[in-house]
Amino acid sequence: MQTGNWEITKRAEFIKAQLIDWRRHLHRFPELSFEERKTSEFIINVLEQEEVFAIQTGVAGYGIVATLSGGEGPVIGVRADMDALPIQEQTGVEYQSEHPGVMHACGHDAHITMVLGVAKLLAEDYRQGKVNGTVKLIFQPAEEAADEHGLTGAPYLLRSGAINDLDAAIALHVCPWRNTGELQINKGPSMANIDNFELEIIGTGGHGGYPHQGTDPIWITSYVLQGLYSVISRKINPLDVGTISVGEIHAGHTANVIPKSVTIKGTMRSYTDVMRRRLIEELESIAKVTESMGGKYQLSIEHGEPALDNDEEVIDIFREIATSIYPNMPIYEEPYGMGGEDFGHITKQVKGAMFFLGCASNGDTSGSLHTSTFQINEDALPIGVSLLTASTHRLLKQG
């Protein structure tokens, strides 16, 4: 891919070998949500070598906020997530995970690496008096999974107060469905609100030979499921973004016994608060069908990440920077999908946006996140460093 002549791309390419080393080390030693102790220690060690950052540790658990202050000006945050997934890696690469059942299958190792690359370039700029304002490099734990309180890392990060002074926040995510060096951006809602639910339908159970003597929760469930699936096909405007899916159904233990209850677990995804409320209302209405059929129900809803709402001005900056430093970079403008991203908690509080950076190898864009064979093309690493660093400088100049 031909790059622009701007110095920052050359500087990022110059540290590519270092970026690859960092990323492979992190990939080899992944840690789950809220368990990122060694990952945190590695990040701190890299940052301390630059000797210019004020490093705050223990943020939201094992999180880190590294601050570089160049005097008066805006305060800009650059965020990377740190945690891995409970997946057994099957890539066969030399640096494959050494932790059984744990894998960086969502690219967080690459995200950490690229923000460490930003740290290195910004430290050089700072020594030359080229940082006007303050930059906070945010290494956030627990993006993938919530704790017993139903919270991921971003809400704890916000509660800590460590980033309450931000004027803007930016982040990236690697994207295996785009070729390496391609950019995907989107204004407004770009990833989904996440609401998971558990619905227990309660009957009386009974003997399979005498179903008329009790209330059969499986029979009731058949109507509930029809109602759930009809929400999207018949009650929601096809032009609106929202869906309900059932992922688990549990009932009974033997063929000739009608169980006392059935448990349905699923997820609701939406892009707007209006649609989020509508789906919850529809779910509650459908659950009440249980009572009209002689049963009872218990419904619980776990409210997860809010929609990732990308600020239009920041997205314009991403596009401007990309076309300036990579004139031939293909740029696609469309939402990122119905997955969740807890950076959405931050964009609800701070002007901010995330872009997706292509990382597919050899033109194979069939890869997916959260799979045992997920890998990235490491050529994407210096590209991400360049885009994040240049965007940070551009945001600093706005002040």
TrEMBL record:
PANTHER family: METALLOPEPTIDASE, PUTATIVE (AFU_ORTHOLOGUE AFUA_6G09600)-RELATED, PEPTIDASE M20 FAMILY MEMBER. Mn(2+) 2 binds at residues 106, 108, 144, 370. Its cofactor is Mn(2+). Pfam families: M20_dimer, Peptidase_M20. The keyword Hydrolase applies. GO terms for biological process: diaminopimelate biosynthetic process. InterPro entries: Amidohydrolase, Bact_exopeptidase_dim_dom, Peptidase_M20, Peptidase_M20_dimer. Residues 193-288 form the Peptidase M20 dimerisation domain. Keywords: Hydrolase, Manganese, Metal-binding. The keyword Cell membrane does not apply. One of its GO terms (molecular function) is N-acetyldiaminopimelate deacetylase activity. SUPFAM superfamilies: Bacterial exopeptidase dimerisation domain, Zn-dependent exopeptidases. Mn(2+) 1 binds at residue 173. The Mn(2+) ion enhances activity. This is Amidohydrolase.
